[in-house]
Amino acid sequence: MTFSVHGLAVSRGIAIGRAVLVASSRADVAHYFVDPARVVEEITRARVARNAVAEEITRLQQELPPDAPHELAALLDVHLMLLQDEQLISGVKHWITERHYNAEWALATQYEIIARQFDDMEDEYLRERKADLEQVVERILRYMKGVASPVQPVGPAGAGRKLSQGLLLDDTMDVPLVLIAHDISPADMLQFKKSLFAGFATDVGGKTSHTAIVARSMDIPAVVGARSASQLIEQDDWVIIDGDAGVLIVDPSPIILAEYGFKQRQGELERERLNRLKHTPAVTIDGQRVELLANIEMPEDTVGAVNAGAVGVGLFRSEFLFMGRSGDLPDEEEQYQAYRKAVEGMHGLPVTIRTVDVGSDKPLDRIDKAQDSHLNPALGLRAIRWSLADPPMFLTQLRAILRAAAHGQVNLLVPMLAHGTEIRQTMAMIDHARATLDNKGTPYGPVRLGAMIEIPAAALSLKLFLKYFDFLSIGTNDLIQYTLAIDRADESVAHLYDPCHPAVLRLVADTIAECNAQGKGVSVCGEMAGDVSMTRLLLGLGLRSFSMHPSRILAVKQQILRADAGKLSVWAAQVLDAEDPAALINPASAPMPSPVPANA
What we know:
This protein is of the alpha/beta class.
Protein backbone atom coordinates (compact mmCIF):
# COMPACT_ATOMS: atom_id res chain seq x y z
CA MET A 1 0.00 0.00 0.00
CA THR A 2 1.34 3.41 -0.98
CA PHE A 3 2.14 5.85 1.82
CA SER A 4 4.32 8.94 2.19
CA VAL A 5 6.75 10.23 4.81
CA HIS A 6 7.51 13.94 5.05
CA GLY A 7 10.84 15.51 5.94
CA LEU A 8 13.09 18.38 4.88
CA ALA A 9 14.23 18.82 1.29
CA VAL A 10 18.01 19.25 1.35
CA SER A 11 19.28 18.14 -2.06
CA ARG A 12 17.18 18.57 -5.17
CA GLY A 13 16.09 15.97 -7.66
CA ILE A 14 14.19 12.70 -7.82
CA ALA A 15 15.53 9.25 -6.92
CA ILE A 16 13.60 6.02 -7.38
CA GLY A 17 14.85 2.67 -6.17
CA ARG A 18 14.77 -0.14 -3.66
CA ALA A 19 15.39 0.76 -0.03
CA VAL A 20 18.61 -0.27 1.67
CA LEU A 21 18.28 0.17 5.44
CA VAL A 22 21.55 0.82 7.23
CA ALA A 23 22.05 1.26 10.96
CA SER A 24 24.38 4.14 11.79
CA SER A 25 26.84 1.74 13.43
CA ARG A 26 27.14 -0.14 10.14
CA ALA A 27 27.14 2.87 7.81
CA ASP A 28 30.75 2.25 6.81
CA VAL A 29 30.03 -1.27 5.53
CA ALA A 30 31.11 -1.66 1.91
CA HIS A 31 28.18 -1.66 -0.53
CA TYR A 32 28.74 -3.05 -4.01
CA PHE A 33 27.39 -5.66 -6.40
CA VAL A 34 29.38 -8.80 -7.12
CA ASP A 35 29.62 -10.39 -10.53
CA PRO A 36 27.21 -13.37 -10.85
CA ALA A 37 30.19 -15.61 -11.60
CA ARG A 38 31.67 -14.76 -8.18
CA VAL A 39 28.53 -15.37 -6.09
CA VAL A 40 29.72 -18.72 -4.74
CA GLU A 41 33.07 -17.21 -3.83
CA GLU A 42 31.31 -14.38 -1.95
CA ILE A 43 29.10 -16.83 -0.05
CA THR A 44 32.25 -18.71 0.90
CA ARG A 45 33.81 -15.49 2.17
CA ALA A 46 30.81 -14.90 4.44
CA ARG A 47 30.92 -18.49 5.71
CA VAL A 48 34.67 -18.36 6.41
CA ALA A 49 34.22 -15.17 8.43
CA ARG A 50 31.33 -16.68 10.42
CA ASN A 51 33.30 -19.86 11.12
CA ALA A 52 36.34 -17.84 12.20
CA VAL A 53 34.24 -15.92 14.74
CA ALA A 54 32.70 -19.19 15.96
CA GLU A 55 36.17 -20.65 16.47
CA GLU A 56 37.22 -17.51 18.35
CA ILE A 57 34.24 -17.76 20.71
CA THR A 58 34.81 -21.51 21.21
CA ARG A 59 38.43 -20.77 22.11
CA LEU A 60 37.30 -18.14 24.61
CA GLN A 61 34.96 -20.69 26.18
CA GLN A 62 37.80 -23.18 26.56
CA GLU A 63 40.06 -20.56 28.12
CA LEU A 64 37.55 -19.38 30.71
CA PRO A 65 38.99 -19.77 34.23
CA PRO A 66 37.10 -22.07 36.61
CA ASP A 67 35.92 -19.14 38.71
CA ALA A 68 34.53 -17.18 35.70
CA PRO A 69 30.96 -15.94 36.20
CA HIS A 70 28.32 -18.35 34.95
CA GLU A 71 26.66 -15.46 33.07
CA LEU A 72 29.76 -14.99 30.90
CA ALA A 73 29.79 -18.63 29.83
CA ALA A 74 26.07 -18.44 29.10
CA LEU A 75 26.58 -15.31 27.00
CA LEU A 76 29.20 -17.04 24.87
CA ASP A 77 26.75 -19.91 24.38
CA VAL A 78 24.13 -17.45 23.14
CA HIS A 79 26.60 -15.92 20.70
CA LEU A 80 27.51 -19.34 19.33
CA MET A 81 23.84 -20.19 18.95
CA LEU A 82 23.19 -16.95 17.06
CA LEU A 83 26.10 -17.69 14.72
CA GLN A 84 24.41 -20.96 13.80
CA ASP A 85 20.98 -19.37 13.35
CA GLU A 86 19.48 -20.65 10.11
CA GLN A 87 17.62 -17.39 9.43
CA LEU A 88 20.88 -15.44 9.58
CA ILE A 89 22.76 -17.94 7.41
CA SER A 90 20.06 -18.42 4.78
CA GLY A 91 19.28 -14.70 4.69
CA VAL A 92 22.88 -13.74 3.94
CA LYS A 93 22.99 -16.39 1.23
CA HIS A 94 19.73 -15.01 -0.24
CA TRP A 95 21.00 -11.44 -0.54
CA ILE A 96 24.23 -12.58 -2.19
CA THR A 97 22.55 -15.05 -4.55
CA GLU A 98 19.41 -13.13 -5.50
CA ARG A 99 20.55 -9.50 -5.19
CA HIS A 100 24.29 -9.97 -5.79
CA TYR A 101 25.14 -7.95 -2.65
CA ASN A 102 28.70 -8.29 -1.40
CA ALA A 103 29.05 -10.36 1.79
CA GLU A 104 29.29 -7.42 4.24
CA TRP A 105 26.26 -5.72 2.75
CA ALA A 106 24.27 -8.98 2.79
CA LEU A 107 25.11 -9.56 6.46
CA ALA A 108 24.20 -6.00 7.48
CA THR A 109 20.93 -6.23 5.52
CA GLN A 110 19.90 -9.52 7.10
CA TYR A 111 20.77 -8.16 10.55
CA GLU A 112 18.35 -5.25 10.05
CA ILE A 113 15.55 -7.69 9.14
CA ILE A 114 16.11 -9.97 12.14
CA ALA A 115 16.61 -7.02 14.48
CA ARG A 116 13.11 -5.78 13.67
CA GLN A 117 11.72 -9.16 14.62
CA PHE A 118 13.44 -8.87 18.00
CA ASP A 119 11.91 -5.41 18.46
CA ASP A 120 8.41 -6.86 17.98
CA MET A 121 8.83 -9.58 20.61
CA GLU A 122 6.75 -9.20 23.78
CA ASP A 123 9.20 -11.05 26.01
CA GLU A 124 11.74 -8.56 27.40
CA TYR A 125 14.50 -11.17 27.66
CA LEU A 126 14.12 -12.12 24.00
CA ARG A 127 14.01 -8.45 22.93
CA GLU A 128 17.33 -7.90 24.66
CA ARG A 129 18.95 -10.63 22.57
CA LYS A 130 19.00 -8.10 19.75
CA ALA A 131 22.10 -6.60 21.38
CA ASP A 132 23.77 -10.03 21.32
CA LEU A 133 22.96 -10.44 17.65
CA GLU A 134 24.42 -7.01 16.94
CA GLN A 135 27.65 -7.93 18.72
CA VAL A 136 27.91 -11.15 16.72
CA VAL A 137 27.34 -9.35 13.42
CA GLU A 138 29.88 -6.67 14.34
CA ARG A 139 32.44 -9.40 15.07
CA ILE A 140 31.90 -10.96 11.66
CA LEU A 141 32.12 -7.58 9.93
CA ARG A 142 35.34 -6.72 11.76
CA TYR A 143 36.82 -10.05 10.66
CA MET A 144 35.87 -9.44 7.03
CA LYS A 145 37.28 -5.93 7.20
CA GLY A 146 40.67 -7.37 8.08
CA VAL A 147 40.62 -9.89 5.26
CA ALA A 148 41.20 -8.70 1.69
CA SER A 149 38.16 -9.30 -0.49
CA PRO A 150 38.83 -11.48 -3.53
CA VAL A 151 35.81 -9.91 -5.21
CA GLN A 152 35.87 -6.50 -6.86
CA PRO A 153 32.85 -4.27 -7.51
CA VAL A 154 31.28 -4.42 -10.94
CA GLY A 155 32.78 -1.24 -12.41
CA PRO A 156 33.95 1.65 -10.23
CA ALA A 157 31.13 2.00 -7.72
CA GLY A 158 28.39 1.24 -10.22
CA ALA A 159 29.92 3.31 -13.02
CA GLY A 160 28.02 3.22 -16.27
CA ARG A 161 24.67 2.57 -14.60
CA LYS A 162 22.17 5.36 -15.12
CA LEU A 163 20.43 5.19 -11.79
CA SER A 164 18.00 7.99 -12.63
CA GLN A 165 16.58 6.12 -15.61
CA GLY A 166 14.89 2.78 -16.27
CA LEU A 167 12.55 2.84 -13.31
CA LEU A 168 11.44 -0.69 -12.58
CA LEU A 169 13.97 -2.92 -14.28
CA ASP A 170 13.95 -5.98 -12.07
CA ASP A 171 17.25 -7.23 -13.39
CA THR A 172 19.09 -7.17 -10.08
CA MET A 173 22.22 -5.47 -11.33
CA ASP A 174 20.26 -2.56 -12.83
CA VAL A 175 17.94 -1.75 -9.91
CA PRO A 176 18.65 1.69 -8.45
CA LEU A 177 19.11 1.79 -4.67
CA VAL A 178 18.23 4.43 -2.10
CA LEU A 179 19.73 4.57 1.37
CA ILE A 180 17.45 4.85 4.42
CA ALA A 181 19.02 5.41 7.87
CA HIS A 182 18.28 6.96 11.24
CA ASP A 183 21.28 9.22 10.76
CA ILE A 184 24.50 9.30 8.76
CA SER A 185 27.61 11.05 10.00
CA PRO A 186 29.51 13.33 7.60
CA ALA A 187 32.43 10.89 7.73
CA ASP A 188 30.16 8.02 6.70
CA MET A 189 28.67 10.19 3.98
CA LEU A 190 32.10 10.34 2.39
CA GLN A 191 31.97 6.56 2.05
CA PHE A 192 28.89 7.00 -0.13
CA LYS A 193 30.46 9.52 -2.51
CA LYS A 194 31.60 6.59 -4.64
CA SER A 195 28.69 4.32 -3.79
CA LEU A 196 25.78 2.81 -5.63
CA PHE A 197 23.08 4.92 -4.02
CA ALA A 198 20.89 7.19 -6.13
CA GLY A 199 19.58 9.09 -3.10
CA PHE A 200 19.12 8.87 0.65
CA ALA A 201 16.84 9.78 3.54
CA THR A 202 17.40 10.02 7.30
CA ASP A 203 15.14 10.26 10.33
CA VAL A 204 17.02 13.20 11.79
CA GLY A 205 18.92 16.27 10.59
CA GLY A 206 18.34 19.82 9.41
CA LYS A 207 18.69 21.64 6.10
CA THR A 208 22.18 22.86 6.91
CA SER A 209 23.44 19.95 8.98
CA HIS A 210 26.71 18.71 7.56
CA THR A 211 25.06 15.48 6.46
CA ALA A 212 22.77 17.59 4.28
CA ILE A 213 25.69 19.66 3.00
CA VAL A 214 27.62 16.58 1.95
CA ALA A 215 24.47 15.24 0.27
CA ARG A 216 24.39 18.35 -1.86
CA SER A 217 28.08 17.88 -2.56
CA MET A 218 27.25 14.42 -3.93
CA ASP A 219 24.52 16.06 -6.03
CA ILE A 220 22.01 13.32 -5.26
CA PRO A 221 18.40 13.73 -4.05
CA ALA A 222 18.10 13.67 -0.27
CA VAL A 223 15.54 14.18 2.49
CA VAL A 224 16.45 14.54 6.17
CA GLY A 225 14.36 14.93 9.32
CA ALA A 226 11.89 12.30 8.09
CA ARG A 227 11.34 11.19 11.70
CA SER A 228 10.34 7.51 11.58
CA ALA A 229 11.32 6.69 8.00
CA SER A 230 13.77 3.98 9.04
CA GLN A 231 11.02 2.27 11.08
CA LEU A 232 8.21 2.60 8.54
CA ILE A 233 10.21 1.61 5.46
CA GLU A 234 11.30 -2.00 5.13
CA GLN A 235 14.32 -3.52 3.46
CA ASP A 236 13.84 -3.75 -0.33
CA ASP A 237 10.70 -1.55 -0.46
CA TRP A 238 10.36 0.58 -3.57
CA VAL A 239 10.83 4.23 -2.56
CA ILE A 240 10.67 7.58 -4.36
CA ILE A 241 12.83 10.30 -2.78
CA ASP A 242 11.53 13.71 -3.81
CA GLY A 243 14.41 16.01 -2.91
CA ASP A 244 12.46 19.04 -4.16
CA ALA A 245 9.41 18.61 -1.91
CA GLY A 246 11.04 16.74 0.99
CA VAL A 247 8.79 13.68 0.63
CA LEU A 248 9.36 9.93 0.54
CA ILE A 249 6.77 7.85 -1.29
CA VAL A 250 6.82 4.17 -0.37
CA ASP A 251 5.45 1.41 -2.61
CA PRO A 252 4.32 3.90 -5.30
CA SER A 253 1.58 3.02 -7.77
CA PRO A 254 2.33 2.83 -11.54
CA ILE A 255 0.67 6.25 -12.05
CA ILE A 256 2.86 7.88 -9.39
CA LEU A 257 5.94 6.19 -10.83
CA ALA A 258 5.16 7.53 -14.28
CA GLU A 259 4.66 11.04 -12.90
CA TYR A 260 7.98 11.02 -11.04
CA GLY A 261 9.75 9.45 -13.99
CA PHE A 262 8.65 12.46 -16.03
CA LYS A 263 9.97 14.82 -13.29
CA GLN A 264 13.31 13.01 -13.39
CA ARG A 265 13.63 13.57 -17.12
CA GLN A 266 12.66 17.24 -16.77
CA GLY A 267 15.41 17.69 -14.18
CA GLU A 268 17.96 16.15 -16.51
CA LEU A 269 16.92 18.49 -19.33
CA GLU A 270 17.28 21.51 -17.03
CA ARG A 271 20.80 20.42 -16.08
CA GLU A 272 21.68 20.09 -19.76
CA ARG A 273 20.45 23.65 -20.40
CA LEU A 274 22.50 25.02 -17.51
CA ASN A 275 25.61 23.23 -18.78
CA ARG A 276 25.62 25.60 -21.76
CA LEU A 277 26.56 28.41 -19.35
CA LYS A 278 29.72 26.68 -18.15
CA HIS A 279 32.13 28.87 -20.13
CA THR A 280 30.09 32.08 -19.91
CA PRO A 281 31.69 34.70 -17.61
CA ALA A 282 29.54 35.57 -14.56
CA VAL A 283 28.78 39.22 -15.33
CA THR A 284 25.57 41.08 -14.54
CA ILE A 285 23.67 42.99 -17.22
CA ASP A 286 25.14 46.27 -15.94
CA GLY A 287 28.69 44.92 -16.21
CA GLN A 288 29.42 43.82 -12.63
CA ARG A 289 31.82 40.86 -12.63
CA VAL A 290 31.03 38.20 -10.02
CA GLU A 291 33.39 35.53 -8.70
CA LEU A 292 31.84 32.05 -8.43
CA LEU A 293 33.95 29.73 -6.27
CA ALA A 294 33.52 26.12 -5.17
CA ASN A 295 33.22 24.49 -1.74
CA ILE A 296 34.98 21.12 -1.56
CA GLU A 297 35.54 18.40 1.05
CA MET A 298 38.38 16.38 -0.46
CA PRO A 299 41.22 17.12 -2.93
CA GLU A 300 39.63 15.07 -5.70
CA ASP A 301 36.56 17.33 -5.57
CA THR A 302 38.55 19.90 -7.55
CA VAL A 303 37.66 17.95 -10.69
CA GLY A 304 33.98 18.76 -10.20
CA ALA A 305 34.84 22.37 -9.35
CA VAL A 306 36.77 22.88 -12.57
CA ASN A 307 34.11 21.09 -14.63
CA ALA A 308 31.43 23.40 -13.17
CA GLY A 309 33.39 26.48 -14.23
CA ALA A 310 34.47 27.60 -10.75
CA VAL A 311 37.17 30.30 -10.77
CA GLY A 312 38.72 28.90 -7.60
CA VAL A 313 37.99 27.09 -4.35
CA GLY A 314 36.40 29.40 -1.80
CA LEU A 315 36.22 26.77 0.94
CA PHE A 316 38.21 23.56 1.34
CA ARG A 317 36.74 21.93 4.44
CA SER A 318 39.96 20.37 5.69
CA GLU A 319 38.24 18.58 8.59
CA PHE A 320 37.12 15.82 6.24
CA LEU A 321 40.75 14.69 6.05
CA PHE A 322 40.56 14.16 9.83
CA MET A 323 37.23 12.34 10.00
CA GLY A 324 36.43 8.65 9.86
CA ARG A 325 39.82 7.70 11.29
CA SER A 326 40.01 5.34 14.23
CA GLY A 327 43.72 5.92 14.77
CA ASP A 328 46.01 8.91 14.56
CA LEU A 329 45.14 12.16 12.84
CA PRO A 330 46.79 12.89 9.46
CA ASP A 331 50.42 13.93 9.87
CA GLU A 332 52.07 16.91 8.18
CA GLU A 333 53.17 15.01 5.08
CA GLU A 334 49.74 13.46 4.48
CA GLN A 335 48.05 16.82 4.85
CA TYR A 336 50.64 18.57 2.67
CA GLN A 337 50.11 16.05 -0.13
CA ALA A 338 46.32 16.47 0.11
CA TYR A 339 46.47 20.29 0.03
CA ARG A 340 49.04 20.19 -2.77
CA LYS A 341 46.78 17.90 -4.79
CA ALA A 342 43.91 20.36 -4.38
CA VAL A 343 46.10 23.34 -5.36
CA GLU A 344 47.45 21.57 -8.44
CA GLY A 345 43.96 20.30 -9.29
CA MET A 346 42.77 23.90 -9.69
CA HIS A 347 45.48 24.62 -12.31
CA GLY A 348 46.62 27.97 -10.95
CA LEU A 349 43.25 29.16 -9.63
CA PRO A 350 43.16 30.17 -5.94
CA VAL A 351 42.35 27.65 -3.21
CA THR A 352 41.06 28.73 0.21
CA ILE A 353 41.85 26.13 2.87
CA ARG A 354 39.92 26.41 6.11
CA THR A 355 41.73 25.11 9.17
CA VAL A 356 40.07 22.13 10.80
CA ASP A 357 36.51 22.79 11.97
CA VAL A 358 35.40 19.85 14.08
CA GLY A 359 32.98 19.47 16.95
CA SER A 360 29.18 19.73 17.13
CA ASP A 361 27.80 17.74 14.15
CA LYS A 362 31.29 16.97 12.81
CA PRO A 363 32.92 14.99 15.62
CA LEU A 364 36.20 13.13 15.42
CA ASP A 365 36.39 9.59 16.75
CA ARG A 366 39.05 10.59 19.28
CA ILE A 367 36.95 13.40 20.78
CA ASP A 368 33.50 11.80 20.51
CA LYS A 369 33.41 10.88 24.19
CA ALA A 370 34.62 14.28 25.29
CA GLN A 371 31.97 15.95 23.13
CA ASP A 372 29.27 13.70 24.55
CA SER A 373 29.98 15.09 28.01
CA HIS A 374 28.99 18.61 26.93
CA LEU A 375 25.38 19.71 27.10
CA ASN A 376 25.74 21.68 23.87
CA PRO A 377 28.73 20.73 21.68
CA ALA A 378 27.89 23.54 19.23
CA LEU A 379 28.91 25.99 21.96
CA GLY A 380 31.87 23.96 23.19
CA LEU A 381 35.38 23.06 22.08
CA ARG A 382 35.09 23.25 18.31
CA ALA A 383 36.83 24.83 15.30
CA ILE A 384 39.59 27.33 16.26
CA ARG A 385 38.95 26.68 19.95
CA TRP A 386 39.90 23.05 19.50
CA SER A 387 42.90 23.96 17.33
CA LEU A 388 44.27 26.42 19.89
CA ALA A 389 43.73 23.84 22.63
CA ASP A 390 45.95 21.38 20.72
CA PRO A 391 48.97 23.42 19.51
CA PRO A 392 50.96 20.47 18.07
CA MET A 393 48.01 19.44 15.89
CA PHE A 394 47.37 23.04 14.81
CA LEU A 395 51.02 23.73 13.98
CA THR A 396 51.16 20.53 11.96
CA GLN A 397 48.23 21.68 9.84
CA LEU A 398 49.57 25.22 9.45
CA ARG A 399 52.94 23.95 8.24
CA ALA A 400 51.23 21.65 5.73
CA ILE A 401 49.10 24.50 4.35
CA LEU A 402 52.08 26.86 4.10
CA ARG A 403 54.07 24.20 2.25
CA ALA A 404 51.21 23.64 -0.20
CA ALA A 405 51.23 27.38 -0.91
CA ALA A 406 54.55 26.91 -2.69
CA HIS A 407 52.60 25.20 -5.50
CA GLY A 408 49.97 27.85 -6.21
CA GLN A 409 47.65 30.51 -4.82
CA VAL A 410 46.53 29.57 -1.31
CA ASN A 411 44.33 31.46 1.12
CA LEU A 412 44.26 30.36 4.76
CA LEU A 413 40.86 30.69 6.42
CA VAL A 414 40.27 30.46 10.20
CA PRO A 415 36.83 29.36 11.50
CA MET A 416 34.78 30.52 14.48
CA LEU A 417 36.94 33.37 15.75
CA ALA A 418 35.22 35.73 18.19
CA HIS A 419 37.87 37.27 20.48
CA GLY A 420 40.88 39.49 19.89
CA THR A 421 42.93 37.11 22.03
CA GLU A 422 42.04 34.22 19.70
CA ILE A 423 43.05 36.29 16.68
CA ARG A 424 46.43 37.17 18.21
CA GLN A 425 47.03 33.57 19.32
CA THR A 426 46.26 32.37 15.80
CA MET A 427 48.62 34.90 14.24
CA ALA A 428 51.36 33.83 16.66
CA MET A 429 50.83 30.18 15.70
CA ILE A 430 51.10 31.03 11.99
CA ASP A 431 54.34 32.93 12.65
CA HIS A 432 55.61 29.96 14.68
CA ALA A 433 54.80 27.57 11.82
CA ARG A 434 56.70 29.78 9.35
CA ALA A 435 59.70 30.01 11.70
CA THR A 436 59.81 26.22 12.07
CA LEU A 437 59.82 25.77 8.28
CA ASP A 438 62.54 28.42 7.96
CA ASN A 439 64.71 26.60 10.52
CA LYS A 440 64.32 23.34 8.61
CA GLY A 441 64.94 24.99 5.26
CA THR A 442 61.59 23.69 4.02
CA PRO A 443 60.11 25.72 1.15
CA TYR A 444 56.71 27.31 1.58
CA GLY A 445 54.67 30.02 -0.09
CA PRO A 446 52.79 33.21 0.81
CA VAL A 447 49.17 32.98 1.92
CA ARG A 448 46.41 35.52 2.24
CA LEU A 449 44.83 35.29 5.69
CA GLY A 450 41.08 35.25 6.17
CA ALA A 451 38.57 34.79 8.98
CA MET A 452 35.13 33.25 9.02
CA ILE A 453 32.31 35.49 10.18
CA GLU A 454 29.92 33.00 11.73
CA ILE A 455 29.43 34.29 15.28
CA PRO A 456 27.43 37.49 15.90
CA ALA A 457 30.27 38.80 18.09
CA ALA A 458 32.58 38.60 15.06
CA ALA A 459 30.07 40.35 12.80
CA LEU A 460 29.88 43.16 15.38
CA SER A 461 33.70 43.46 15.59
CA LEU A 462 34.52 43.92 11.92
CA LYS A 463 37.04 46.73 12.35
CA LEU A 464 39.07 44.52 14.71
CA PHE A 465 38.97 41.61 12.25
CA LEU A 466 39.89 43.71 9.23
CA LYS A 467 42.89 45.06 11.13
CA TYR A 468 44.42 41.57 11.03
CA PHE A 469 42.90 39.79 8.01
CA ASP A 470 43.09 40.25 4.24
CA PHE A 471 39.57 38.98 3.62
CA LEU A 472 36.47 37.71 5.41
CA SER A 473 34.20 34.81 4.53
CA ILE A 474 30.65 34.77 5.87
CA GLY A 475 29.64 31.31 7.04
CA THR A 476 25.89 31.81 6.94
CA ASN A 477 25.03 28.34 8.25
CA ASP A 478 26.56 28.92 11.67
CA LEU A 479 25.84 32.66 11.64
CA ILE A 480 22.12 31.90 11.39
CA GLN A 481 22.41 29.16 14.02
CA TYR A 482 24.14 31.35 16.57
CA THR A 483 22.14 34.49 15.84
CA LEU A 484 18.79 32.73 16.26
CA ALA A 485 19.88 30.17 18.89
CA ILE A 486 18.73 27.33 16.63
CA ASP A 487 20.50 23.97 16.47
CA ARG A 488 20.69 23.55 12.71
CA ALA A 489 20.89 19.75 12.98
CA ASP A 490 17.71 19.48 15.08
CA GLU A 491 14.64 18.83 12.93
CA SER A 492 12.30 19.73 15.82
CA VAL A 493 13.29 23.41 15.51
CA ALA A 494 14.19 23.41 11.83
CA HIS A 495 11.17 25.57 11.00
CA LEU A 496 12.74 28.40 13.04
CA TYR A 497 16.01 28.32 11.09
CA ASP A 498 15.49 31.39 8.93
CA PRO A 499 18.13 32.88 6.61
CA CYS A 500 15.74 35.77 5.92
CA HIS A 501 15.46 36.87 9.56
CA PRO A 502 16.07 40.66 9.71
CA ALA A 503 18.89 40.26 12.25
CA VAL A 504 20.71 37.74 10.06
CA LEU A 505 20.38 39.88 6.95
CA ARG A 506 21.61 42.95 8.82
CA LEU A 507 24.76 41.14 10.00
CA VAL A 508 25.44 39.87 6.48
CA ALA A 509 24.81 43.30 4.93
CA ASP A 510 27.03 45.14 7.42
CA THR A 511 29.89 42.68 6.89
CA ILE A 512 29.75 43.10 3.11
CA ALA A 513 29.50 46.89 3.38
CA GLU A 514 32.44 47.24 5.79
CA CYS A 515 34.71 45.02 3.70
CA ASN A 516 33.81 46.92 0.53
CA ALA A 517 34.43 50.24 2.30
CA GLN A 518 37.92 49.10 3.39
CA GLY A 519 38.77 47.49 0.08
CA LYS A 520 39.01 44.03 1.65
CA GLY A 521 37.74 40.85 0.03
CA VAL A 522 34.48 39.32 1.25
CA SER A 523 32.58 36.22 0.21
CA VAL A 524 29.66 34.13 1.39
CA CYS A 525 30.58 30.45 1.67
CA GLY A 526 27.52 29.16 3.53
CA GLU A 527 24.49 27.52 1.97
CA MET A 528 22.98 30.96 1.31
CA ALA A 529 25.55 31.43 -1.48
CA GLY A 530 24.15 28.49 -3.47
CA ASP A 531 20.49 29.35 -2.85
CA VAL A 532 19.20 30.93 -6.07
CA SER A 533 16.38 32.62 -4.17
CA MET A 534 19.03 34.68 -2.32
CA THR A 535 21.30 35.50 -5.28
CA ARG A 536 19.62 38.80 -6.20
CA LEU A 537 19.58 40.02 -2.61
CA LEU A 538 23.28 39.27 -2.09
CA LEU A 539 24.11 41.03 -5.34
CA GLY A 540 22.07 44.01 -4.21
CA LEU A 541 23.96 44.08 -0.91
CA GLY A 542 27.22 44.42 -2.84
CA LEU A 543 28.50 40.85 -2.71
CA ARG A 544 30.71 39.96 -5.67
CA SER A 545 32.18 36.65 -4.45
CA PHE A 546 30.01 33.56 -3.90
CA SER A 547 31.35 30.15 -2.80
CA MET A 548 29.10 27.12 -3.04
CA HIS A 549 28.97 23.48 -3.95
CA PRO A 550 29.97 23.02 -7.63
CA SER A 551 26.53 21.60 -8.46
CA ARG A 552 24.94 25.00 -7.65
CA ILE A 553 27.32 27.20 -9.63
CA LEU A 554 25.51 27.15 -12.98
CA ALA A 555 22.08 27.82 -11.45
CA VAL A 556 23.49 30.81 -9.54
CA LYS A 557 25.33 32.00 -12.64
CA GLN A 558 22.04 32.00 -14.54
CA GLN A 559 20.57 34.36 -11.94
CA ILE A 560 23.62 36.64 -12.15
CA LEU A 561 23.45 36.85 -15.94
CA ARG A 562 19.84 37.98 -15.65
CA ALA A 563 20.47 40.55 -12.89
CA ASP A 564 21.00 44.32 -12.94
CA ALA A 565 23.09 44.95 -9.81
CA GLY A 566 22.40 48.71 -9.83
CA LYS A 567 18.64 48.28 -9.65
CA LEU A 568 18.99 45.49 -7.09
CA SER A 569 20.89 47.70 -4.60
CA VAL A 570 17.85 49.97 -4.11
CA TRP A 571 15.56 46.99 -3.70
CA ALA A 572 17.99 45.28 -1.28
CA ALA A 573 17.88 48.34 1.00
CA GLN A 574 14.09 48.01 1.10
CA VAL A 575 14.40 44.33 2.02
CA LEU A 576 16.71 45.16 4.92
CA ASP A 577 14.18 47.65 6.31
CA ALA A 578 11.22 45.31 5.91
CA GLU A 579 9.52 43.72 8.89
CA ASP A 580 9.11 40.52 6.87
CA PRO A 581 12.04 40.34 4.41
CA ALA A 582 11.04 36.88 3.18
CA ALA A 583 7.87 38.35 1.67
CA LEU A 584 10.03 40.55 -0.58
CA ILE A 585 12.69 37.98 -1.44
CA ASN A 586 11.09 36.27 -4.42
CA PRO A 587 11.38 36.64 -8.19
CA ALA A 588 8.09 38.55 -8.43
CA SER A 589 9.23 41.32 -6.08
CA ALA A 590 12.85 41.65 -7.21
CA PRO A 591 13.40 44.17 -10.03
CA MET A 592 13.71 42.43 -13.37
CA PRO A 593 16.17 43.66 -16.00
CA SER A 594 15.36 44.45 -19.57
CA PRO A 595 16.73 42.13 -22.22
CA VAL A 596 17.82 38.76 -20.80
CA PRO A 597 20.81 37.19 -22.58
CA ALA A 598 19.67 34.44 -24.92
CA ASN A 599 22.02 31.87 -23.42
CA ALA A 600 21.03 32.67 -19.81
